[in-house]
## 1
Amino acid sequence: EKGGYDYFMLKEIAEQPKAVADTLLGRIDASGSLSLDEVRIPVSVLREVDKVVIVACGTAYHAGMIAKLAIEHWTRIPCETELASEFRYRDPILDQRTLVVAISQSGETMDTLMALRHAREQGAKVLAVCNTNGSTIPRESDAVLYTHAGPEVAVASTKAFLTQLVACYLVALYLGQVRGTKWGDEIEAVIRELSDIAAAVDTVLETMEPVRALARSLADKNTVLFLGRHVGYPVALEGALKLKELAYMHAEGFAAGELKHGPIALIEKDLPVVVVVPSPRGRSVLHDKIVSNIQEIRARGARTIVIAEEGDEAVVPYADHLIRIPATPTLLQPLVATVPLQVFACELATARGNEVDQPRNLAKSVTVE
Ligand code: F6R
């Protein structure tokens, strides 16, 4: 049932192009608009929303961090993303005009469930983004947008994460569409480009052999750092989380701009540092900033592993290892940039002799608070 793969995780990584395509299926109509009829929250209610709060745990929380950037950009509605386990203990400000988005693969995560119960008690509307039909979180929400990743067996989340991102982009674009924003043209263009994303993920998967070889060569390292900015920051956190849970290595993700405020003290000779580089098109300021971050860490001896868009030549002189990803719109880049990090962690875990599908101390579904 592993379909010829050694591990479920490898199978699930390979299934990502299909998972992404399936999650888009039937949600974009012939005219290129979104039709999310299953989101049974009336358009009149969505038009009145004045704040979005996203709650989730672990990998789903990283999807939520990216969703915040997409929602605020395309809708101009203030949005915050919070760890579900922290949320209700701080007495959050919620009312009928708050839309809470609860993201969960399993639909059974107790922290997320308790957060959404708290939100509904305060009168907020809750939209679940979930991969498991009929599970508790969608049953207790006002509406649900299902991700169509299919069953995810490996404890480390991969295809569910990519489909959570797709679903979150759909929510952001849909909110933009029903409310009308100045980004109308961009929203139409991004909806079109989403249709090409499955093929882009496939392209990444075809070029992963050097990433596997690199991972094997780092099997005796103790620490790997991950840096990113904007959408690349949650991708860095996700890369670090995958490495912790699978390879049991010390792995940390940082916002690259924070380096000089502390973490740069960690840089020493031969320390592997993965850097997620934003597109040089689009927000080029961000790109230039991260190129100087790469120079800074390399000058201090770091071994730089650079994930950059095809055609980005500015990073070449500073990359000890260069991992190419297809060009995408800025906000969609996590869909392609995360994939090499999944492969990297999986291969490192294998090289270190760890059980890939069942990491120690972890469970697939965390039904205790
Ligand atoms: C990491 C991982 C966990 C889950 C988290 C939330 O690979 O799988 O961090 O993402 O436990 O689980 P769900 O999405 O089921 O609520």
## 2
Amino acid sequence: MDFDAQTRGVDYSRIFTQAIDRLHAEGRYRVFIDILRNKGMYPNARCFAGHNGPKPITVWCSNDYLAMGQHPKVIAAMEEALHDVGAGSGGTRNIGGNTHYHVDLEGELADLHGKEGALLFTSGYVSNEATLATLAKILPGCIIFSDEMNHASMIAGIRNSGCEKHIFRHNDLAHLEELLASVDPAAPKLIAFESVYSMEGDIAPLAAICDLADKYNALTYLDEVHAVGMYGARGGGISERDGVADRITIVEGTLGKAFGVMGGYIAADQMIIDVIRSYAPGFIFTTSLSPVLVAGVLASVRHLKASSVERDGQQAAAARLKAMMTEAGLPVMLGDTHIVPLMVGDPVKAKRISDILLAEYGIYVQPINYPTVPRGTERLRFTPGPSHTPAMMRELTQALGEIWGRLELRKAA
Ligand code: PMP
């Protein structure tokens, strides 16, 4: 399209090109790797970069943490649903798209978190944005207290609510209390935070935040996206593990990570579910999830409620990989979670390491740059699953050791 010819003076092409050039100049232009996973063989996959046909690779950065996206029960449930009812839901929840699969899954998710109800969205992003924006509009004069490391979808919801907001330092209870104490005690208040912070691999002090919420009469909104399916005896997340699920007003989760498929949800008192269902544009005005996806999630949630085998295997794999990286002198962050961040501190170097791993070793890990993480804390984020073997970990650690030497990168302190 010839923008210049059409646009009477505004040089659209130049503006778009400059926007992309800025990303190149900072070394954080995003390159998506073209892959196909092999059914039932995770973490093995094929990469379509280059001209020599697909190349076998090992995936180290998937958020399908437990490989449930390839679990035989999940695949069978999806095949059956496709066969029984076809591909799509056919409408919004209000207009024809409220299938029995959706109703069943909401019941299953409410039960998972010990709540009266749950509500499905097309993604975790949408559930955060739609719920936070709507809640704060419904509560007149609502003030939101938000952890500084909260996900972009929560930030978008808070912004779109137009309400007063206060950002507290990451997991800093004293700062949160100082801010809670500084506002009108009679104003409605909401504390928005995550349980597992996905880039740091650390965990919020849930019980202590609930204590502050009680003290200052605030509601709590907890993003358990990286924890549902992964923690707690039935996969109810950190709120289940820590025995505080009943103290969280709204739990939010994804169906695309540990549950291996796609979609998002909230779980809460029926009254709150009814408000969001009735007022949130991001819920109301969009086609509901395909029943095929919902059937897969149902199988996944039911399986992970009853089985801890995958969770335990994943935790063991993460502990083993952290130990091997530490042993090799690599600057791994040693949090308490399933996430293994390896610090690089420079976007160009992070990309270079990722490129070498893929081209020379058939190892795929995506570099994580600003704005996903603060500048100067660029990293590689490994998510070992139950099927990453010790041999794969040895191969990975050796490759990283060689690259660290070759590029003269900083070792662990
Ligand atoms: N919350 C957090 C903390 C996330 O990391 C993400 C996605 N990475 C989301 C919400 C959005 O979830 P989804 O991918 O299901 O849209």
